[in-house]
Amino acid sequence: MNIISATLDITPRLPCELGGYGYRKGKKWDKISDQLEANIVLISQVNNIPIVLISLDLLYASSVLQSSIDRFLYKSNKATKFSISYFASHTHSAPAVNDSRPSLGQFDVDYFNQISSLIAEKILYLYSQILSDPNKSIDISLAFSLLKYNPGVNRRKSKLFTITRRGVKFRQVVQVTPNLKIKLDDNTNLIYLYRNNVLVVVFVRMSCHPNSNPERYAVSSDYIKDIRDVLRCKYNSDLPVIFMLGSAGDVRPPSYDHSKDILVKIFKNPFYLLNLVRLGIPFRQFTDLENSKWRNLIKKKIENHISITPLHRHCLYSITKLDHDLPYSNEVNMDKLMLNSSLNINIIIFKLTNNTCIRFLNIAAELTTDFYKGLIKNLEKDMDIQHLIVNSCCGNVDSYITSTSEISRGGYEVNGFRKAFEFRQLIKPSQIVNKLTYLIKKTYTTY
Description:
Strand order of the largest sheet: 14-12-11-6-16-17-18-20
Number of domains: 1
Largest sheet: 8 strands, mixed
Distance between the termini: 18 Å
Structural class: alpha/beta
Helix content: 25-40%
Strand content: 25-35%
């Protein structure tokens, strides 16, 4: 077994439209706040297909981007097939790479071709380095740590009535407003991979939308940059960091007015009180100062954690990647707007010599907190899930996946997203949970 990693700059060279928000339509970025990165790790095992894990500072890793990279790889090296997993950071300040979802951002051909070729060339270069490596005695080890922390806030809050021009209507609705009562997924995981006692890559998993940047038309990797900076300052300035987004579908930065700000606004404009009653406390853009403070808080949390947490390394015995497509056919009514017929997932299993297995469950969807809790509750009935890491935005994202109770309440994650995603039907979460549970259970008996 051998492992190699690299970091690649995928910041756009020329101004183009950014993905994530409809108000940017027709307007190109005018500033680069943070560089965008692709972080790549390639794992080679004897008689096995090389496994490639790629973290991208993009809204999503679209199927068209994946196909383009595959074509570049095949054209340059027809003899080798690569098994690739994609992790999108889900930053809302990067160019769109999906030509079939204009509502999520205008597709830019030049940028698309730029990063497709760069990523494919880097994969081929890394593979050639492994093939030419004369060192046959290679020790791969892994360390795992858990930080209980989530920097965000839930954005789904129910109201029992709405106020319209026709009067008050008593019905339960879910609005995009801060909900401090919801307990978030606070599992922030750090996984370290070493090659001959040298740190090669760190995987970081956190569950919060990366959309804090107050500059609307600026390129930014958001708080993910700060996490990478902390790790690189501690270990190695060139250290590749694979960022994995957890159950962040309904979790965003706490950018809203607090009690003092609300009182000031009501004093200046009494009609603001009516809007509070009608719509609740709205989210807004961070100010530059608020954004800086929030991102510094994340940095300090990570810094403190890695400075006081001892790492216990164990030798890596094997790495296995299992790909699955869960058909939508039993869960949704297919129509012409459906782009895919199945939900793509993959499971990566790091088996250690002490018989511990670290499992990544990677799902090509945005996962809400309630869905994640339901899945974990279902899994922990029969198995130890201490080392199970559930990730979202892994591949071509078609939909949000939420819980049955949330579907009955409605809201953006149930209905509002469909127009932008060009996805008319909902996935039944109960069936998805049952299928995922079956697949994960199977890995416990096999590995």
